[in-house]
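Action item from last meeting closed. Structure (106 res):
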């Protein structure tokens, strides 16, 4: 949400793109968790034997939601970083990218 908040004034279309992709990824994760009847992350491992395809979908969806570079969730972040750089807000872009990397780690 912070990514969308920082770019809203500079490029509203980019904000909408980020929102739509975020909504799509979040919906995928929640529908997968609902279909597998998972209430805790610890039970994801036990549901692997029952629904392997849904669990195989869940892991890339979670990584995409975090914004890992080769996945869909990275695209809006990359475009926002480019827009911030064009607006001469390189310090803000660097801080956002660094904090995003820390979020991936934890």
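Sequence:
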């Amino acid at each position: 949400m912070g990514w969308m908040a920082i770019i809203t004034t500079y490029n509203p279309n980019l904000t909408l793109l980020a929102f739509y992709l975020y909504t799509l990824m979040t919906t995928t994760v929640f529908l997968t968790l609902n279909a597998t009847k998972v209430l805790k992350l610890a039970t994801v491992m036990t549901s692997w034997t029952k629904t392997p395809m849904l669990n195989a979908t869940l892991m890339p969806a979670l990584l995409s939601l975090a914004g890992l570079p080769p996945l869909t969730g990275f695209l809006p972040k990359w475009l926002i970083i480019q827009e911030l750089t064009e607006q001469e807000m390189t310090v803000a872009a660097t801080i956002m990218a660094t904090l995003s990397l820390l979020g991936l780690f934890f």
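Note appended to the action item: Residues 2-105 form one domain.
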